[in-house]
Protein 1
Amino acid sequence: MEENQGVWVFIEVNEGEIEGVSLELLGAGRKLADKLEVPLSGVMLGEGIMPLANEVIYAGADQVYVVDHPVLKNYRTESFMKGVCTLAEKYKPEIFLYGATPNGKDLASAVATDLSTGLTADTTMLDVDVDKRLLEASRPAFGGNIMATILCKKHRPQMATVRPKVMKALEADRSRKGVIIEEELELREEDMRTKVLKIVKDVTKKASLSEAHVIVAGGKGLGDIQGFQLIHELAEVIGASVGGTRDVVEAGWLKHEQQVGQTGETVTPKIYFAIGISGAIQHVEGMKNSELIIAINKDPNAPIFDVATYGIVGDALEIVPKLIHQFKELSKEKGGEMSYA
Amino acid sequence: MHIVVCVKQVPDTKIIKINPKTNTLDRRSAPAILNPYDAHAVQEAVKIKNKTGGTISVLSMGPPQAVAVIKKSVEIGADQGFLISDRAFAGADTLATSYALSKALEKISKDKPIDLVICGKHAIDGDTGQVGPGIARRLDIPPITNVIEVSEVNKEEKYVHIKRKQINGYEVIQSQLPCLLTVEKEINDIEYAPLPNMINAARYEPIIWSVNDLEDVDKTQLGLKGSPTIVGKMFSPPKLEGGKRLEGTADEQVGQLMEVLLERKDLLKLKTANS
């Protein structure tokens, strides 16, 4: 176990671009590596990805392992896990982080099984105990009512998937120097049992929530699906996207893809309205990094007020119609439509 | 076609309470239910069986009372169910859980070879999504996670076409059978159970296996002993100080809020009739 050294980050590449979460993890990984006084490495697999290697260095890594192979053109569990396991067995990192994206979670779960090691899912806080060289990966547990710190004492590498948009990427430093290590891997298409037939991008969905500048989100405090209409109405008037809590989605008031929180989308809009939302950890984890948070809730002790920039203690059913009215008046005054577009 | 669905009994996390003094879960505060994602997994197996014919088995690991989720699965349309239940399995993390379940699946497949394994995307108490892919690795079959549609099942040529959810959009994957799928909720709607299923379920008694009923088991890989991860500590997240409360009557509050919002002129755009 002592031979295991260094912090690794899996670099996810989609359509010739490094995923944001991978850059965020290089930022977080840099801190861990500095504390442990070990190098930070990126691990990148794909086809034609060599030109991206320097970006990994600029984002904070000391070195990048690159496997460039036609079989790795699209993500597949079988080919990627073979590549990642081979590298991990050869170079023996002590910590290995992945973005908690569909591919990152899929890959990490498979790799952990083959390496017989521990994996913490959907981490939102990372630290290390330097003396014991232990990764402290914390995440909301039990549906997000409480935080749990997960440790992996006897197995290496210690692995975790980390929620996107929780850690901070470093500013790209184009003067940073590092080592690029190209690895050969024996992979044959005829050994593969799966094929990616088609990739379909849904542009509208992305624009609707995780990319939105302004989000109006509602919770159970709106009473019923009729009350929830106010959320749609306000969003429409100010040109915002609509989100909601897990409860609201499970009650069928809103679609799954509009759920904000630990098991839904993580969002970082400029303005986030939390209306009739009590602020369970599960929800707060998905929106706390929004720039300006406005909370409207009847209960003065609701935890949502702890993360809100501005809070209104009051009945959403009374406050929101007034807000809608104000915006409509404003638009009339200006002779057009005022909206956060 | 032999489809095996892995299911889990979970506390309903929507209502569960945490003891604020000990930071532990008060399991009595929440009813035990069939993990919602697993219900969709069983439903998908029923949809496939309706087209291809065959048998649906369900498999669960848990205490004896977990037979309830197997009976619930029979109500949705499963034909038979297995529960592995033993103190040796207790305290398992995802690695030890996938090991135990894969041993049970090996035993099930000896009797009737398995063509397809379906799991829910994750369980709502653990929220990890790691057991499904883990089982697939141990059985050496391809895992396909985040499945939103099973568009084709060809049992003669032994392949499936799957729509898999991606960061923005989806991909269509062809996989050889057998393989393992983990399904999202949007894959189907749970149908009302027909009366004969409900009667079957009420009468049904799942097969229960202890650790000694399974074959070639390395006991050091089971339960707490076989789990590399442990919970170091539980804590309430750091309290944030919170911001400013807007005071006054509802109208005054809304007035102040409008001032705050209009400060973000960089975001506000005015669309006029002639622009």
Protein 2
Amino acid sequence: MTTTTTTAATRRTGERGDVRLTGIGKTYGSFTAVHPLDLTVPEGSFFALLGASGCGKTTTLRMIAGLEEPSSGTVHLGEQEVTHLPPYKRPVNTVFQSYALFPHLDIFENVAFGLRRRGIRSVKKQVGEMLDLVQLGEQARKKPHQLSGGQQQRVAVARALINHPKVLLLDEPLGALDLKLRRQMQLELKRIQTEVGITFVHVTHDQEEAMTMADTVAVMNAGRVEQLGPPTDLYENPRTTFVANFLGTSNLLTARTDSVTGEDLVVEAGACTLVLPRARCSAPTTTGGEVLVGVRPEKISLTHAEDADTIPDGRNRVTGRITSAGFIGVSTQYVVDSPVCPDFEVYAQNIDRDPRLVPGAEVVLHWNPAHTFGLDAAQSPLAGTAEDAAAGGEGTGAR
Amino acid sequence: MPLKTPLRWLRRNLVVLAGLFTLGYLLLPNVVVTVFSFNRPRGRYNYAWQEFSTEAWRQPCGVAGMCGSLSLSLQIAVWATLGATVLGTMIAFALVRYRFRARGPINSLIFLPMAMPEVVMGASLLTLFLNMGAQLGFWTVLIAHIMFCLSFVVTAVKARVMSMDPRLEQAAQDLYAGPAQTFLRVTLPIAAPGIAAGALLAFALSFDDFIITNFNAGSTVTFPMFVWGSAQRGTPVQINVIGTAMFLLAVVCVLGAMAVGNRRRRRTG
């Protein structure tokens, strides 16, 4: 699925720092790394390209940087077409995955590199300010290898930002850091972006990172943009099984469309009748047709079968038996074996723990129908899951 | 435990001892050369110690033809180093960075001069020069030296270029450096240690080459050829003076490089 954002509208308003990709694609021989796609990154936004390795996200980024020649399509930065400009003539800068700091230059000269190449003589003040922004003023005369991973990462950001690019490109900038430092740097990068107001395009395979940092996330899979939108939108209303599984976890059940009543869609999964809003179903809604019904594990409540009559009317219900319960402090993760789905996942907040909810207990799962979404049943329900990645992809993309 | 103590001492200092022995083994010939540069030999051969004298040191060019051959050797070494380093660096970059036809065979053939016996190489070069009707002398020697130094430079530079992250050059381009600037500011400085190593090797190999030079020099006499020639008729003390001076120069260079490296490390560390 290609995301078509209206290029005409942005062309009229003529924003200066937006990135506009039109029909851009990249093939290597017979391998298609990126299928022709249209993408507009609005000025001043924090945009994330999210996907597993080999999905084409880095290639897309490198085409914006000019490090990769697109096989088709055009790249616009604001009003300027840059498709065939070499990287050193583009007003964009990149933070590379391995930072790519120059090992023979000290931190000061690394940061000053871009300014000096543009013939700016007095760089001292600017470099000093930039190093202060990333809190590395003390380290100016050290060589890159003498700094820690997090410090090197900040030097890479400073080296790019000092040039005031129209767009800052970040290629998995936090991939080499440990978890705690990564969390810290996510907030740091977000702070810097808000401070300088430059458009950031961030490539990552970490869905949490993309969701915490970005205003808009484009989920890529096998060289295509699967879905694009604000993180909450993508999470709450995924439109493909890949997005449903890659962003967080989803329970997906195969169901048959029973009837359409007003704004709601009534489907049957085994013996259960479930309701979901029509607006949240991205599949064609023909009566009798198959549809994948999805619900997030944390939206579901778990009630012991003995108390089934206390569940309010109007909620979607599924019965089953707990097969495992994992206590992780703030919540408990249950796996429930139900007739409609053999491993239904439920995350329950540990507010009032019911001591009867142990493996083997008969339970009723219930949730608000508004939290249900529907997907096209023609896709593999496993796309984007860990098992799918291990099996080598769902096989729909060009690999 | 009278036996255990010296054994333990030996075990603890074995590495130091081995190091000292190796150093002694390596340096002993140099010591002999240095000592005999202060000798006043009786007769033509400087092989037996007679009495102390600084005469040879006061007149290093006192032997006919020696300083001429030394200066010729230095000239050839400098030009051969320059030629081999420039060509070798370009070949190394081409072999690592580009995919072209015959890249594989070239990659292996470049090692041939290193593996081939010098006598074979010298003789075949002579055949080549004679068939081409070339005048033997400075130029034939220089061409021969560049040829056999080349493979050493290529090997040294290639190792360095291969370990270079191509993203460094992409980063330079991303930071507004054009192709020439990228090469001068990033590629060359990072490849410099490999290039320097190759150049030093080339200089040392060219300066003391005898076999190939002897085949292709015609009536030209380089320093190693002069030493060889005089060894037949008698060895002037000045040869020891030049040898000692070269050795001291090399030691000073190494110590200087170490001092610079130490100071840099201390400043940045």
